[in-house]
C-alpha cells in the first residue's frame, strides 16, 4: 500500500481529466478556515538529519532576528525524505532550538497550530483541484484528499453481481441511474438504509463509528480501475458528472482511475475521518511514549490532527507544554531547548480507500521577542538636555529590590549595579526583558538637585521613552521689600529700631523682653540733671566776682 504526502514526492503523472464541471456560485459555500498558514521565518536557520530512525531538526534563531519568529515544523518535516509514513509506524522527531539572536524569546501562548494543509496548495475550484464542499477545517476539499467510492457497498443491492471485484468502471459511472431504479434519491439515503437507518442525518447523529464503518474496510475492490485514455474519455462523454470527481494516474500506457465520493456529506466525512482517526501527533517524551497506532489506545485516538482544534483538550495540552518548555528563563540568548514529538498513521483502519491518497498537515509555533530597548531622556524644567546624570535600573521581585548588573545579571547590591550616564541628554537601556522597572538617579550634574524619588517604567511590545526632569539648585535671593541698613563703622550691622539689644557692659540694662523699672530711672535722671544745673550756676557766680 502506498501513501503520498503533499510537498514530497507527489504522484508522478497524476492528473485531472476533462473540463471541470464547476458548481454555480449559489452552490459554493464560503470558506471559514481561520488558520494563518505562515512559513518559517527567514531569520531562522534550519538543518536536518537522522539519528538512527529518529528525525533531527535543528533550528537556530540568528543574530538578524527581530520580533516574532515562526517555526513551521511541518514544512521542514515534509522536506525530509527519510521519514516514515507507513500505517502502524510511529515516526519520532527531535527538535533542537538555539537562540543566538541576542534577544530573549519565549513561546507565544496560543500560537500552536496543528491542522490540515492549506488546500490552496492543491489548486483551485476553477481548475477542478478543489471541490465546492467544506471539510471540518472550513476549507474546500481537495479532490486528492477525498476518499474514493468503493464497490463493496453496491455490488449486490445495486448491481446484482456476486462480489465487488465483479463491479466494472461503467457500473460505477452509472450509479445514479442504478440508485434511481431502486428508489433512492442519492448515495446518502442508500448508505443510511444499507446500515439500517432511516436517513443520513440519523445515522451520523447516532453512530460515532460511522467513519470507521464506511472507510476502514475496502473489500476485494479498492476502487481503482485500470483502462485506456480512449475508454476513459468515452465514459466521461457518456457520464459527464464523473469528470469533476476523477483522479487519474498514468501506469505505462494505461491509466489507473478512481471516482471520489461525489456528495459533500460523504466526501467531507472521508476527509475528516482521515484527520480525526488516521493521522496522530504527540508532543513531549511522555506523550510520544503513549502513541500506539496499532493498539489504538484512548490516548492515541484522542490525538488525531482534528483533535487539536482551538479550545480542545489536546490543544490546551500542547499549548501548556510549549509555554512551560519555552519560557523566558529557559530560552535566554545563547541557550538551546529541545523537545520530542512524533506522528503516526493508524495501522488497523487504514485501507485501500486511501490508496494513492495525498495528505498533508500544517504544524507551527511562534516565538515572541520578550525584550526591548528603553530610551531615557534627561532634561531640565525647560526641556533642555542635561548631561552627566548617573542612574541605576532596578526592579522588585517577590518583595526584594534588585539592580541590573553590567552582564545583565540582577543583584541586591546597588553598589554592583551598572551605571548609566546621560550623554547628549539621553541614554539607552538595551534588550531589557519585558516587565516593570524603575530608574534611580544616583548622581546629579553640578547645579542640579538629586531627586529623592524613583521613576517607574514598563517594557513591553512598544519601545518606550522615559523622561526624567532635573530641578536646578535654588540660589538665595534677598527680599527687596526690606531696605538694607548700612553697616556700622566697625563693620557690624546696627540694631533695628524695633529690637532692643541689651548693653552687656551695663549689668543693670534690661535684656530684650525683660520688664524695666522706668519710674525709678526717671527720678534718678532728674536728680542728676538738677545737680548739673546747680554746679553750672555756682561756676558762673565765681566768674562774675573775679570780673568785678
Task: Tell me what you see in this structure.
The chain has 548 residues and is α+β, with helices and mostly antiparallel strands. Helices cover 21% and strands 26% of the residues. It is built from twelve helices and 25 strands. It has helices at residues 73-78, 169-173, 175-181, 187-194, 200-206, 210-215, 229-238, 264-278, 285-290, 298-301, 313-325, 518-547; strands at residues 4-5, 44-51, 54-61, 69-72, 90-99, 105-107, 113-115, 130-134, 140-142, 225-227, 246-251, 254-259, 279-283, 336-345, 358-359, 362-369, 371-379, 390-397, 400-404, 410-411, 420-421, 426-433, 435-443, 455-459, 464-469. Strands 18, 19, 20, 21, 23 and 24 form a six-stranded antiparallel beta sheet that branches. It has a five-stranded mixed beta sheet with strand order 2-3-5-14-13. A hairpin with a 5-residue loop joins strand 19 and strand 20 (410-411). The longest helix has 30 residues, at 518-547. The termini are far apart. Mean pLDDT is 83; it is low at 1-26, 504-524 and 526-548.
Secondary structure topology:
Blueprint: E1 4-5, E2 44-51, E3 54-61, E4 69-72, H1 73-78, E5 90-99, E6 105-107, E7 113-115, E8 130-134, E9 140-142, H2 169-173, H3 175-181, H4 187-194, H5 200-206, H6 210-215, E10 225-227, H7 229-238, E11 246-251, E12 254-259, H8 264-278, E13 279-283, H9 285-290, H10 298-301, H11 313-325, E14 336-345, E15 358-359, E16 362-369, E17 371-379, E18 390-397, E19 400-404, E20 410-411, E21 420-421, E22 426-433, E23 435-443, E24 455-459, E25 464-469, H12 518-547
Parallel strand pairs: 1-15, 3-5, 17-25
Antiparallel strand pairs: 2-3, 4-16, 5-14, 6-16, 7-16, 8-9, 10-12, 11-12, 13-14, 17-22, 18-19, 18-21, 18-23, 19-20, 23-24
Amino acid at each position: 500500500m502506498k501513501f503520498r504526502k503533499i510537498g514530497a514526492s507527489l504522484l508522478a503523472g497524476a492528473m485531472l481529466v476533462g473540463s471541470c464541471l464547476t458548481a454555480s456560485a449559489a452552490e459554493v459555500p464560503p470558506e471559514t478556515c481561520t488558520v494563518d498558514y505562515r512559513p518559517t521565518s527567514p531569520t531562522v536557520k534550519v538543518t536536518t538529519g537522522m539519528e538512527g530512525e529518529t528525525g533531527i531538526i535543528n533550528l537556530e534563531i540568528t543574530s538578524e532576528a527581530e520580533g516574532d519568529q515562526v517555526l513551521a515544523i511541518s514544512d521542514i518535516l515534509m522536506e525530509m525524505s527519510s521519514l516514515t509514513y507507513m500505517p502502524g509506524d510511529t515516526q519520532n522527531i527531535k527538535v533542537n532550538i538555539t537562540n543566538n539572536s541576542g534577544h530573549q524569546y519565549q513561546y507565544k501562548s496560543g500560537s500552536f497550530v496543528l491542522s490540515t494543509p492549506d488546500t490552496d496548495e492543491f489548486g483551485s475550484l476553477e481548475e477542478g483541484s478543489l471541490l465546492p464542499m467544506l471539510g471540518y477545517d472550513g476549507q474546500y476539499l481537495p479532490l486528492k484528499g477525498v476518499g474514493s467510492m468503493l464497490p463493496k457497498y453496491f455490488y449486490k443491492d445495486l448491481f446484482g453481481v456476486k462480489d465487488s471485484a465483479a463491479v466494472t468502471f461503467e457500473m460505477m459511472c452509472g450509479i445514479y441511474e442504478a440508485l434511481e431504479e431502486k428508489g433512492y434519491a442519492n448515495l446518502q439515503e442508500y448508505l443510511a438504509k444499507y446500515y439500517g437507518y432511516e436517513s443520513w442525518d440519523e445515522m451520523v447523529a447516532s453512530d460515532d463509528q460511522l467513519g470507521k464503518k464506511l472507510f476502514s474496510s475496502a473489500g476485494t475492490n479498492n476502487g481503482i480501475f485500470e483502462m485506456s485514455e480512449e475508454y476513459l474519455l468515452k465514459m466521461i462523454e457518456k457520464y459527464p458528472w464523473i469528470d469533476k470527481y476523477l483522479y487519474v494516474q498514468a501506469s505505462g500506457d494505461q491509466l489507473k482511475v478512481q471516482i471520489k465520493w461525489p456528495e459533500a456529506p460523504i466526501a467531507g466525512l472521508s476527509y475528516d475521518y482521515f484527520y480525526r482517526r488516521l493521522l496522530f501527533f504527540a508532543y513531549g517524551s511522555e506523550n510520544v511514549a503513549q502513541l500506539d497506532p496499532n493498539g489504538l489506545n484512548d490516548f492515541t485516538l484522542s490525538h488525531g490532527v482534528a483533535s487539536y482544534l482551538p479550545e480542545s483538550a489536546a490543544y490546551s495540552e500542547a499549548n501548556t507544554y510549549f509555554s512551560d518548555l519555552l519560557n523566558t528563563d529557559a530560552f535566554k540568548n545563547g541557550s538551546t531547548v529541545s523537545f520530542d514529538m512524533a506522528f503516526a498513521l493508524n495501522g488497523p483502519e487504514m485501507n485501500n480507500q486511501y490508496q494513492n491518497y495525498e495528505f498533508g498537515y500544517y504544524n507551527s509555533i511562534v516565538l515572541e521577542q520578550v525584550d526591548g530597548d528603553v530610551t531615557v531622556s534627561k532634561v531640565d524644567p525647560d526641556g533642555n538636555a542635561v548631561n552627566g546624570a548617573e542612574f541605576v535600573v532596578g526592579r522588585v521581585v517577590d518583595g526584594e529590590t534588585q539592580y541590573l548588573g553590567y552582564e545583565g545579571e540582577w543583584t541586591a547590591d546597588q553598589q554592583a549595579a551598572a551605571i548609566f550616564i546621560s550623554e547628549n541628554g539621553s541614554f539607552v537601556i538595551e534588550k531589557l526583558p519585558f516587565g516593570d522597572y524603575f530608574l534611580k538617579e544616583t548622581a546629579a550634574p553640578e547645579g542640579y538637585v538629586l531627586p529623592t524619588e524613583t521613576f517607574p517604567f514598563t517594557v513591553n511590545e512598544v519601545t518606550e521613552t522615559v523622561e526624567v526632569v532635573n530641578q536646578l539648585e535654588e540660589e538665595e535671593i534677598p527680599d527687596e521689600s526690606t531696605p538694607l541698613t548700612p553697616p556700622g563703622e566697625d563693620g557690624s550691622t546696627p540694631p533695628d529700631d524695633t529690637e532692643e539689644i541689651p548693653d552687656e557692659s551695663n549689668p543693670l540694662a534690661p535684656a530684650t523682653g525683660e520688664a524695666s523699672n522706668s519710674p525709678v530711672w526717671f527720678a534718678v535722671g532728674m536728680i542728676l540733671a538738677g545737680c548739673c544745673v546747680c554746679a553750672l550756676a555756682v561756676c558762673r557766680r565765681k566768674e562774675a566776682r573775679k570780673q568785678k
